[in-house]
Structure formats: structure tokens, C-alpha cells
Design a protein that fits this description.
298 residues, alpha/beta, Rossmann fold, 9-stranded mixed sheet, 3-stranded antiparallel sheet, 6 helices, 14 strands, binds zinc ion
Length: 298
Amino acid sequence: MKIKLILFLLFFSFLSFGAKPIKVMLLTGQTDKYHNWPVTSSQLKAILDHQEIFKTDVVLFPATGEALDQFLPDFSRYKVVVLDLNIPEWPEKVKTAFEKYVQNGGGVVVVHEANNACPNWKAYNLMTGLGGWGGRNEKSGSYCYWKDGQYVTDNSPGPGGAHGQRIPFVINVRDSEHPITKGLPKKWLHQNDELYGNLRGPAQNIHILATAFSTKETGGTGKEEPVLFTITYGKGRIYHCVLGHTGTDFSDSVQDVGFQVTFSRGTEWAATGNVKQNLPTEFPTETTVLLHNLSKLK
Ligand code: ZN
């Protein structure tokens, strides 16, 4: 495997529309011991802010032990909310406001461990479509994966959520006509990441954009797992990006150009239903990872 590192000036060429920027709320500030929200959120914000079409506000969920009674983000001011957090439970009034926001057409982007959150919140699981851990099992919904050229569901009993070693893996695009994936190569090599597998959930109104094969030899599930997909909930559009593990000393996955391009396109699609961003001039190939060092954006 070759890894190519280039500077952002060489390959990002996005349109400036001269229109009002898309307002993005990046909701972060609390996660589990495996994930590092200060790293993730700064990098997700850098990816979006690098393009002139977004204006991103970071909203911090109160830390564990802090009072929650004053916490009620005004979702209605935003076209899309990016979920970069793993909270076991949200306050009731915040849950209600968020459900109303999405029902009325608000966009949502689910990043990696956000699908571990809130196993008992029905609407959240309908929005995320699939989730892992948090005690999820057959009561949470089906397993979903790609088999023989199509998406299948499997109601067999068992836990929800697994991943093998953190390694590079090939992303297989399954719908090249969707605005998020249109024009991208059919396959590209994604930098070291956790490939979530055996996710399960209601999986209603779900549309698979891309999958990746989780090899048993590296501790995976032996299945072609969904990694990029969309869901609708009420009038709201949700883009679910299973990729993007970021630990305390690790952020390779979000340095990947394939991650960055699909994340920013998915955020635009969730907000507007369209994607007007130009494709980058360079993109990873099936055998070559392409990294974009976000520290250059700070
Ligand atoms: Zn992770």
C-alpha cells in the first residue's frame, strides 16, 4: 500500500456560490473513553470551514456531572446538525426539540460513535437507522449488510456492534447516482479506521451508498458492511457516516480525502438535498490512500 500526502492547496477546489452559507451545528463535547471529541470536532469543523459554503458553530453538550437544565440548543437556527458525541441519554426537552427539528425537515449527520448513543431512544434509532453497543441486540432491530449485490436484513439474535483491527480497507460504492457519491470512484482505499460491523437497528427508510468488506482474518465479521448510508425521518434527511474513528492519539481516518469529501458532501446533502461541491482534483484509488493533513487548516 502506498500513502500519498499532499497539501490542501493542491486538490480542494470547491465552488463559492456567493449565496448564504449553510448553517451547521456541530454538536459535540461528551463521548466515551474510546473517542476523543476535542480532536474529532476540531477536524470536522476544519473540513467544513475549509469550504465557503458552510458556517459551522460548535455546540458543547454539558460534560458529565454538569447541570443540564439550562441546556437547550436552538436547532431551528441550523440547516443541519452534525452529531459528534456518544451520550447515553439526552434530557427530555432536548430530545423533544431535536425530534421536532428533524420531523420538520432539519438535516442530520451521524459520525461514527454517535451511532453507539441512546440505545433506548426510539426516534434517535429511527434517525440513525443502525447502531452498535449500548446493550443493542435483536430487540433493537435487524442486522443489515450487503450480500449478492443487494442489501439484506437478518433478524437472527445476537449483540449489535463489532469491529476488528484498525486497518486500511476498500470502500465499495453501491450507488453512484446519489448526489453524495456521484462522480466518485467505485472503489477507494480508506485510511486506517475501525470498520464497524454487525450494527443493528430499525433500518427504516435506509439507503446504502457504500459498503466495505470486514475480513475475519483481521478480527472482522466476514460481511460486506454498510459504511455510508442515508435515512429519512419525517421531512428530515440523515447522512450516516460509520467511518471516522478518532482516539486520543489517532486521527488518521479523518485525514483521509475520501472521508473528508464524503463527509462534506453528505453534510450539504442533509442540509439541502443537493450537492454542489466540485470534486477534488485528486482522490484515493483502490490501492493508494490519499491524506489531507488537517493541521494545515488551523
Ligand atoms: Zn471508534
